Amino acid sequence: LLPQVCAQLCRRPCYCPWVPPRCPRGSPLVLDGCGCCKICARRLGEPCDFLHVCDQSQGLVCDYSSASAGTGGTCNFEDDEEGCEVNGRVYRDGEVFQPSCKIQCHCLDGGFNCIPLCQEDVRLPTPDCPYPRRVEIPGKCCPEWICEAQDQHIPQAARAAPGAASPRLRFPCPEWGTEWSPCSATCGLGFATRVSNQNRYCRLETQRRLCMARPCPALPAAFP
């Protein structure tokens, strides 16, 4: 049967376009079913036939099981495994892959799950690094935190003279702080503490406030 199909569809000599076709991303140039002209390989789920072959590098074959008589098939995995197509590339079921250096994905049951490889942490201002900023580093995939100088955030007109009070900050300060601690005294006046950056310098500091859990009971009268 195959030689008869070849005789009907394949002509010799080959007559191919001078310029090869431009293929979509993830579809390589391959020889057609006659081994004559270069065409774009069909991807997972795309129609196929004797001439328009599937991408064998991805383990795809032309599946005629669900096609009616006289029609073409559909590109599918040879062993009928489910796969994932991401950015024009097909991954096998169970395969782990990285579409970019920042995420890692796992193909499973026709879908895929991804996890980030870069930490999404938040760095708050500290006394040794009052102005943290996250930047892209050339040659590195994940952005990193750097500490900038104070002069880069305070305009020239706002800088204080020596001995003068420091001006208020001119950049957003994300609010952060711990809960107030229990009162230091079980009765009467005491104090509670917390760590917060809600101050004019946006720096972490220990803050205190007066508190009273309950009044202290009256002392018993002294006996003579």
User: Could you please say which CATH topology of the largest domain applies here?
Assistant: Omega-AgatoxinV
In total, the number of domains comes to 3
What is the number of helical segments per DSSP (H or I, 4+ residues)?
1
**CATH top level label of the largest domain:** Few Secondary Structures
Structural class of the helices, strands and pairings? mainly beta
- Note the gap between the termini: 126 Å
Largest sheet: 3 strands, antiparallel
* CATH architecture descriptor text of the largest domain: Irregular
Binned, the helix content reads under 10%
**Shape type:** elongated
Tell me the radius of gyration. Answer: 35 Å
Instruction: Note the run of SSEs as H and E.
Output: HEEEEEEEEEEEEEE
Task: Report on this structure.
- With 224 residues, the chain is mainly β.
- It folds into 3 domains: 1-79, Omega-AgatoxinV (Irregular); 80-145, no CATH class; 176-214, Single Sheet (TSP-1 type 1 repeat), CATH 2.20.100.10.
- It is 4% helix and 29% strand.
- The protein is built from 1 helix and 14 strands.
- The protein has one helix at 2-9; strands at 29-31, 38-40, 47-48, 60-63, 73-77, 83-86, 89-92, 96-100, 103-108, 111-116, 132-135, 144-147, 189-196, 205-212.
- The strands form 6 sheets. Strands 3-5-4 form a 3-stranded antiparallel β-sheet, with no helix packed on it. It has a 3-stranded antiparallel β-sheet with strand order 8-9-10, with no helix packed on it. A two-stranded antiparallel ribbon has the order 1-2.
- The chain is elongated, with a radius of gyration of 35 Å.
- The N and C termini lie far apart (126 Å).
- The relative contact order is 0.08.
- Mean pLDDT is 77; it is low at 151-167.
- May play an important role in modulating bone turnover. Promotes the adhesion of osteoblast cells and inhibits the binding of fibrinogen to integrin receptors. In addition, inhibits osteocalcin production.
- GO terms for molecular function: heparin binding; integrin binding.
- InterPro entries: CCN, Growth_fac_rcpt_cys_sf, IGFBP-like, Insulin_GF-bd_Cys-rich_CS, TSP1_CCN, TSP1_rpt, TSP1_rpt_sf, VWF_dom.
- It is found in: Secreted.
- It holds the Pfam family IGFBP.
